[in-house]
Design a protein that fits this description.
By secondary structure, the chain is mainly alpha-helical. 69% of the residues lie in helices and 0% in strands.
């Protein structure tokens, strides 16, 4: 694989890799470090990447493994807050912007309460747009388990949001 092919097959997925690593680590610097490691691994394996059915899925799998390794080793710097990845919408009023931010924070907190497998499947499917088969490859999980985790994650989120809406509860806890 030459540099141009690497640029077209690997580099376009770096933002997805970053978001995926960030979901695990909740730390921008650590997520960037993981992505950099993944890109270095991909460059070092550039002659073998044609053997993989999906280079993107391979990169996501490496990102997952490196993130889990950092979590297990305790090497990473833990922070409680996820960075605000939202772009400012200048057409919204300050009130609407604050309300949107509150909703996003609530959803993020609800996501954090899900079991890790459900978080990962939900992010890969609904936020990153991966197919079930690709998710199974990335997470090294049987296809049926991918579907079960996605169903349970969506159901739990839906139930919690309906309950919050019905009772007018602000659950930022």
């Amino acid at each position: 694989m030459v540099l141009e092919e690497f640029k077209t097959r690997v580099l376009p997925v770096k933002n997805k890799l970053y978001r995926f690593a960030l979901r695990f680590l909740s730390n921008e610097d650590e997520a960037q470090d993981v992505v950099q490691e993944v890109l270095i691994k991909a460059w070092n394996k550039r002659e073998e990447l044609h053997l993989y059915r999906s280079v993107e899925a391979w990169c996501m799998q490496v990102t997952r493994n490196l993130s889990l390794n950092r979590l297990k080793s305790g090497h990473y710097r833990d922070t409680e807050e996820l960075p605000d990845g939202q772009q400012a919408n200048h057409e919204q009023s300050p009130y609407d912007q604050a309300e949107t931010q509150d909703v996003l924070q609530t959803i993020d907190q609800l996501l954090q309460r899900l079991p890790p497998a459900q978080q990962q499947v939900l992010q890969l499917r609904d936020m990153e747009g991966y197919a079930y088969q690709e998710i199974g490859e990335i997470l090294e999980m049987p296809l049926a388990q991918v579907k079960v985790n996605l169903f349970r994650a969506r159901k739990t989120l839906r139930e919690q949001l309906i309950k919050m809406d019905a009772y007018g509860i602000d659950q930022h806890s």
